[in-house]
Design a protein that fits this description.
about 250 residues; five-stranded parallel β-sheet; 10 helices; 7 strands; elongated
Length: about 250
């Protein structure tokens, strides 16, 4: 039930939805003063949530700091790589890679450098109605296709969310074992992910990837020019913050 509620919630917390709803209300309501206020509020939200500089400042405050590769240990037994980076196109029988694929690419880079011995991929299907294609299994096949030995890939294909990622992992990797682990996920997702794995008793280093916030830019296109794609970034950020709060309240962290 929690999984389905989270999917519904992600639409309710979208700034795009807020802007559209308030704009439509400003068009259909009859009371002139209220119409004017809603119209101004809708326009204000549109300008705020499409401003790149404002978004990156909020994301910068949320994302943990990244570290240099040289700051890592010389070797890790497993890289815990969280899913949420692909969908599968049944018609063309191929993977659709999304922005968070940086999680896998950075893990491959560490593997090629000899910093990690093995991959541990955790995550099933994040879709509500289609549970056929398990992301960890698909990514395992992809890594094998790249030439990585199957013996170096451990998968957990049943979890549906970050909390289940951590819980299901205990069936495969004992938190009490003396293993060097490194958790790899997107910077915006690291707070919630690390909290869940810490709650389950794991000890690990973190490696944030797929960062939104970088060097602060004071250019006109960042300070003034609205960008539609920023709306998607806000939805992602609000989803993560609200998810973190809910996880904390229910005891997942």
């Amino acid at each position: 039930m929690f999984f389905y509620l989270s999917k519904i919630l992600q639409y309710l917390i979208s700034p795009t939805v807020w802007i559209v709803v308030t704009f439509l209300l400003s068009m259909v309501l009859k009371e002139a003063k209220l119409k004017r206020y809603l119209g101004i509020f809708s326009l204000s939200m549109l300008l705020f949530f499409t401003n790149p500089f404002i978004f990156h400042e909020f994301m910068r405050a949320w994302e943990p700091d990244a570290i240099q590769k040289e700051e890592l240990k010389a070797e890790y037994d497993y890289a815990i790589v969280l899913s949420g980076m692909i969908t599968y196109d049944e018609k063309f029988e191929r993977i659709n890679f999304k922005s968070s694929t940086d999680r896998l690419l950075q893990a491959i880079d560490l593997y090629n450098d000899g910093i990690i011995k093995k991959f541990y991929l955790t995550g099933g299907s994040g879709e509500i109605f289609n549970q056929k294609h398990k992301e960890a299994s698909i990514l395992q096949e992809y890594l094998i296709h790249l030439g990585i030995p199957e013996s170096d890939i451990l998968i957990e294909p049943n979890s549906k969310n970050t909390y289940e990622n951590a819980v299901e992992s205990k069936k495969l990797i004992n938190p009490d074992d003396e293993l060097n682990l490194i958790l790899i996920t997107s910077a915006f997702h690291m707070r919630r992910a690390s909290g869940c794995f810490l709650k389950q008793g794991y000890k690990f280093d973190t490696y944030v990837v797929d960062r939104y916030s970088g060097k602060r830019k004071y250019t006109l296109d960042q300070l003034i020019v609205p960008k539609a794609e920023v709306l998607e970034g806000w939805t992602l950020l609000i989803h993560e913050i609200s998810g973190y709060i809910v996880y904390d309240v229910v005891g997942y962290l």
